[in-house]
Amino acid sequence: MPGMQKRPGKTKGDDDAVLTIDELAKYLKLAKSTAYKLAQEGKIPGQKVGRHWRFNRAAIDQWLASQNPRRSAR
């Protein structure tokens, strides 16, 4: 649209940097209830924003890699 500007520093793919609980469950191929449980127990990196959980994709990827260090060393 004319007159609309992109946000500075915004690049394609930035919208995927933060995941909702639904997106996280799909990304990890888990049931939504399992994703909630992991988040509530502090077993997965995430934070509540108001009543909603949000997850940084880079932190999730790092967490995944750290879950089985022997496997990633191969």
Structure description:
By secondary structure, the chain is α+β, with helices and mostly antiparallel strands. It has helices spanning 21-28, 32-40, 57-67, 69-72, and strands spanning 18-19, 47-49, 52-56. It has a domain at 17-67: Molybdopterin biosynthesis moea protein, domain 2. Strands 1-3-2 form a three-stranded antiparallel β-sheet. Helix 1 packs across helix 2. The longest helix is centred in the C-terminal third of the chain and has 11 residues, at 57-67. The protein is globular and about 35 Å long. The N and C termini lie far apart (49 Å).
Proportion of residues in extended strands: 5-15%
Largest sheet: 3 strands, antiparallel
Q: How do the helices and strands follow one another from N- to C-terminus?
A: EHHEEHH
**CATH fold name of the domain at 17-67, please?**
Molybdopterin biosynthesis moea protein, domain 2
Task: Output the keywords.
74 residues, alpha+beta, Molybdopterin biosynthesis moea protein, domain 2, three-stranded antiparallel sheet, 4 helices, 3 strands, 14% strand, globular
Task: Annotate the secondary structure layout.
Layout: E1 18-19, H1 21-28, H2 32-40, E2 47-49, E3 52-56, H3 57-67, H4 69-72
Antiparallel strand pairs: 1-3, 2-3
Helix pairs in contact: 1-2
Brief description of this entry?
The protein has 74 residues and is an alpha+beta fold. The protein is built from four helices and three strands, in the order βααββαα. Strand 2 and strand 3 form a beta hairpin.
